[in-house]
Design a protein that fits this description.
This protein is mostly helical. 62% of the residues lie in helices and 6% in strands. It is built from 19 helices and five strands. Helix 1 runs antiparallel to helix 5 and helix 5 packs antiparallel against helix 6. The chain starts with 16 loop residues before the first helix and ends with a strand.
């Protein structure tokens, strides 16, 4: 009987399929459990509240065409699914998050298929772990936003693209292009991925000198692309007209896109030097691995090179869009789709190197990734919106204080916290809490019982004309006050007992 080393070039599926597959299932189930627990326990964030309001108030067709909306918060497909889930379940935060929770199962499934069918056992399982164990990525599979959906569709598109490369067929090609289109409908910035994938898929038959496949591919690409672009572009132009495409970087791809993605993935919001160090090391490792694979295994028409070309063209498209059309560089959550794509690129190139070398490298990376996940995993906050991590708990304690004193207390908060505070006060029936809006104008400091302060320096983007300034801070600064609650890690403080300095 022959056996294969875990670092051999052949997949171990032929020898022990059930062991390999159970390993994938167990790993996937553990991360799915993590996401479900987060979806149940993490508090709402501003963008989710906007999504829930849109799903409740708008009709399906209005959501689909973003009718009359002047904001970019409506991730169309996600909002449609949230509205549908409200019909079959209930109007709650968890039900709003369910579409993305479910999408994680599809993301993991297609990732598993790519790894199992194309890589050695060790590298395949390493790819699976690396592409899942990013705490920043997993946060968005447990939120009512479109990012989890878009990345799941992207992974499905990559799977069918890889299968079409190995055994071309109209069905696989169409599935890949269609899923890439759905990814772009989920989050419009995924147009970069859609264009890059379409280009690369049609470039393959050119290198193979397969005119028939090229003709069919171009026909499918143009037809599917026209349908999706006719839907997406009018909405994008409308958002541009109203100045709502402001979210993004204006410096360069490295400092905006890659750095912001690394910062949140590593959970290092306050230590930029360590982020740059880790990012440079990872980019150097990626560059060396890709170069070595291209040098030692010069197989130009290969699935590995499909991912090399896709990633390269994707980056070129993003940079070109900035210089030619003024489109901003994707940052933090908008750039998340690059993470699994870079991991796939790295692992496919690593797979072409020596068995024990790649086994050692993938083991070290999995260990480092596991340590990072352990240090940054949590069940109470979202990195991008960490200042909203404790809103529900704060309101519960403030409401309890009102109940204890037998009167309704007046509450004000930093503007950036207002939407979520309003959501919880309305949905959780905090009957002893009365929120004073910014227009409450003539109130005296003595009329305010509690003030939720987000004290971190928060500079709104220049294009946000309404801003995110905090009028209460300037108003209450001259007065003495006591700290009722504090969450120093997120820079949230609840102040009370306002009085003059006399």
């Amino acid at each position: 009987m022959t056996t294969s080393s875990p670092f051999s070039g052949k997949s171990a599926v032929a020898n022990s399929p059930w062991r390999v597959q159970i390993t994938y299932v167990v790993i996937g189930a553990l991360f799915l459990g993590y996401i479900v627990i987060r979806a149940l326990h993490v508090g709402a964030v501003y963008d989710e509240v906007m999504t829930i309001e849109t799903a409740e108030k708008w009709q399906f067709w209005d959501i689909l065409i973003n009718r009359g909306s002047r904001h970019a918060n409506n991730h169309v497909l996600n909002t449609l699914l949230v509205k549908s889930f409200f019909y079959i379940g209930n109007v709650s935060l968890f039900w709003a998050r369910l579409p993305n929770v479910i999408s994680f199962a599809f993301y993991a499934y297609f990732l598993y298929k790519i790894a199992l069918r194309n890589l050695s056992t060790a590298v395949g399982i390493g790819l699976f772990v690396l592409a899942l164990a990013n705490p920043f990525l997993l946060e968005f599979f447990g939120l009512a936003r479109g990012y989890g959906l878009s990345i799941a569709f992207m992974m499905g598109s990559l799977y069918f693209a890889s299968e079409d490369f190995k055994s071309p067929s109209v069905r696989k090609f169409l599935a890949s292009i269609f899923l890439a289109g759905l990814s772009a409908v989920s989050v419009f910035s995924m147009l970069y991925f859609f264009l890059a994938l379409t280009f690369i898929l049609n470039l393959v038959p050119v290198f193979r000198k397969d005119a028939a496949s090229l003709k069919k591919g171009l026909g499918i690409s143009c037809s599917v692309g026209a349908i999706f672009l006719c839907f997406i572009l009018p909405v994008v132009f409308r958002l541009h007209k109203y100045g709502q495409l402001y979210y993004g970087g204006v410096h360069d791809f490295y400092n905006d896109t890659l750095f912001s993605l690394a910062k949140y993935s590593l959970g290092s919001l306050g230590n930029e030097s360590n982020v740059y160090l880790a990012l440079n090391f990872l980019l150097l490792s990626l560059g060396v691995t890709v170069s070595a694979a291209l040098f030692f295994k010069r197989e130009w028409i290969s699935l590995r090179n499909v991912f090399v070309g896709l990633t390269t063209f994707l980056v070129v498209t993003i940079v070109a869009a900035y210089y030619l059309a003024g489109a901003r560089y994707p940052i933090d959550r908008v750039a998340l789709f690059l993470y699994p794509l870079l991991v796939i690129l790295f692992c496919f190139c690593l797979n072409d190197l020596g068995g024990y070398l790649r086994g050692g490298v993938i083991s070290l990376l999995v260990l480092a990734c596991g340590i990072n996940f352990t240090l940054n995993a949590n069940f109470y906050k979202v990195g991008v919106w960490d200042y909203e991590a404790h809103t529900r708990q704060i309101l519960e304690k403030v409401n309890e204080e009102g109940r204890r004193t037998g009167r309704t207390v007046n509450l004000v908060c930093s503007t950036v916290l207002g939407k979520v505070v309003e959501y919880y006060v309305n949905s959780c029936n905090y009957s002893y809490v009365h929120v004073l809006g910014e227009g409450a104008g003539a109130v005296s400091y003595a009329d305010i019982d509690f003030y939720i302060l987000f004290s971190r320096e928060f500079e709104p983007l220049e294009e946000m004309k309404d801003g995110l300034s905090d009028p209460w801070r300037e108003f209450l600064n001259p007065y003495k006050k006591d700290v009722f609650l504090e969450y120093p890690k997120e820079d949230i403080y609840v102040l009370t007992n306002f009085r003059t300095s006399d």
